[in-house]
């Protein structure tokens, strides 16, 4: 640290690169790029800062400054975007939801490509379209694609199922079934080319092609094909008309409009293809550093594209920062493979589209705030209703629910799910393997899990704090009776808070509480009951998912570990070939002998051992 209490900056380079601010806990709180790292960082520690209100707070929290030198400003831009995605620093503008946004991928690297939604990292062999703002928008687009283009729906790089029988999609006209040779490679490639044209926004050309083909089919009295083409034209026209808004030129570009207010921002992306607005996406961002809208927009662009399709032109609100626009253009040109222009239009239709995006961003942020306020009011009302109905000492802001899952007493596990403010807090979920209980004793298992949870609370384990406002058990009087002694025992002589305990019995949705013989019955359609049901069902789902995982590992170990001639490598090959232990157990000798890398002699010995 320097004499004035700020981190020493003398070691910083004067070359292009990325600077990384960290707090006392070594957490990344801000990432920035610069042509001259030392000069740019120095501006944060001037008396006036750089004009942003939160810079004073940022300065106070910085304890360490790291840097990464790059060979160019463009390289620094790419690195900055990657680090923001990885660390999600508090003072950078970043997408509110920490999940990855969905894309539609066309697996052009496969011989017979598939088309599906994905949130996975991008494979350079394939084509990606997006990001989409929600899973709903992806599935709506895929629904239109499924009805119009008969691409294959089966999983894996190779078409078809092990049985060799075509799936139902073939029989209902939703798949061309390359698995059985029902379509040539050339024709299937044509289907995929149409899918890509659709996703790129070139719908008019697809409609014209089908109109010509429909006339030709009618001329040849092939009325069945003509009717099919007519239906495809109808679906494509519906999509085009729903999205259509034309401009004078036939250019293709994306327009990014941002609006920032306080610690939140909204970015709207208008996609124009061949003179038509074909899509509009809205993204809500955290903007704790209170960056200006222009900064938010420029920082969002590289996060948005990643490795997705980039148009020839990108319109942004830039405040005449030509150097940054040129650097962004170089980056996007590298992604596209051809030249990309990034600019702020001054007049004409493109200026109008950008202003439309800006206005929609402002309205989008206002709308999101109204929805958020309405949601908070509904949640507060529901939590207050629960407090009253269940006679709780305070609002149940943090609800923890527990469930037990096992198979006839084996592989017994438990789940702990957390709802914070009426919403799932998935980072707070925990799971347990039951250690001390033999057999199918859900009551004793629940008692063990609650004891372990409370012991972690008493030990100030940060993974199990804070204390819940309500513990909810999935079960009835039995589970409740098993847990009451645990709570009473652990409160004696200990600084354990008085945590309310309730259980929810599934059949009649009765709520039991300690010391009260009659259950509480909430109205069937009340938001209070619906919230408890959501919490209980989520605990059940999480417990079952963990149990399935544990049981699968146990089955794999017990079935494959002691087989003659089967070591770790051959075990992997068997599982990769059959997919599950169950499929392996049901395999015939011929199927075992077909496993790659498994000698025939070993296959016969394995078959004898399994089926003896």
TrEMBL record:
Protein location: Cytoplasm
Domain UVR: 204-239
Cellular-component GO terms for this entry: cytoplasm; excinuclease repair complex
Main localization of the protein described in the UniProt heading: cytoplasm
Gene3D superfamilies in UniProt: 5' to 3' exonuclease, C-terminal subdomain, GIY-YIG endonuclease, UVR domain, UvrC, RNAse H endonuclease domain
Record bears the keyword Protease: no
Domain GIY-YIG: 14-93
Residue ranges of domain UvrC family homology region profile in the record: 256-487
Domain of life where this protein originates: Bacteria
SUPFAM superfamilies: C-terminal UvrC-binding domain of UvrB, GIY-YIG endonuclease, RuvA domain 2-like
Classification via Pfam families: GIY-YIG, HHH_5, UVR, UvrC_RNaseH, UvrC_RNaseH_dom
BP GO terms, sorted: nucleotide-excision repair; SOS response
The keyword ATP-binding belongs to this UniProt entry's keyword annotation: no
GO molecular function: DNA binding; excinuclease ABC activity
Function: The UvrABC repair system catalyzes the recognition and processing of DNA lesions. UvrC both incises the 5' and 3' sides of the lesion. The N-terminal half is responsible for the 3' incision and the C-terminal half is responsible for the 5' incision.
Subunit (UniProt): Interacts with UvrB in an incision complex.
Protein family per UniProt: Belongs to the UvrC family.
HAMAP family: UvrC (MF_00203)
Protein name: UvrABC system protein C
Source organism (scientific name): uncultured Rubrobacteraceae bacterium
